[in-house]
Design goal:
- It is built from six helices and three strands.
- The protein is α+β, with helices and mostly antiparallel strands.
- The chain is elongated and about 45 Å long.
């Protein structure tokens, strides 16, 4: 998936018509397909940990050489997972010599947060009171 595909889900600050919230506006077929690709990339524990490690890194970026030792996986497997995150538009990488340095694309996670956020005026419905069993 290209970064343009994720952009189609909407940008923060634009009208609700182009920034659907999952909880208030039904997604059209194209938006659902693009969003599913992002969630699929996030649906693997290794990729989720990689994203977390990149996002939480001081300085905002990390070398693949620093990520690999945290897993009991080969470097090519880690690179494959990173490539799937990159294709989903969640991270970007820059080659420096023989290593690639990765950084989070915060606009992608901001868009996901916006899509999943309930609008401020919609509070969850109160649960009905349990009926009193004593009759």
């Amino acid at each position: 998936m290209s970064k343009q595909g994720l952009a189609a889900l909407g940008r923060p600050g634009e009208a609700d018509a182009c920034c659907p919230r999952l909880l208030t506006t039904p997604l059209d077929d194209g938006q659902a397909v693009e969003l599913a690709k992002v969630f699929k990339a996030l649906g693997d524990p290794v990729r989720l940990r990689l994203l977390s490690m990149i996002a939480s890194r001081a300085g905002g970026e990390v070398c693949v050489c620093d990520l690999t030792p945290a897993f009991d996986l080969s470097q090519p497997t880690i690179s494959h997972h990173l490539e799937l995150l990159r294709q989903a538009g969640l991270i970007d990488g820059e080659r420096r010599g023989t290593w690639v340095h990765y950084r989070l694309l915060p606009e992608a996670t901001d868009r996901l947060a916006d899509i999943l956020t309930r609008p401020g005026d919609t509070a969850p419905a109160a649960s009905p009171a349990a009926p009193d069993d004593a009759s």
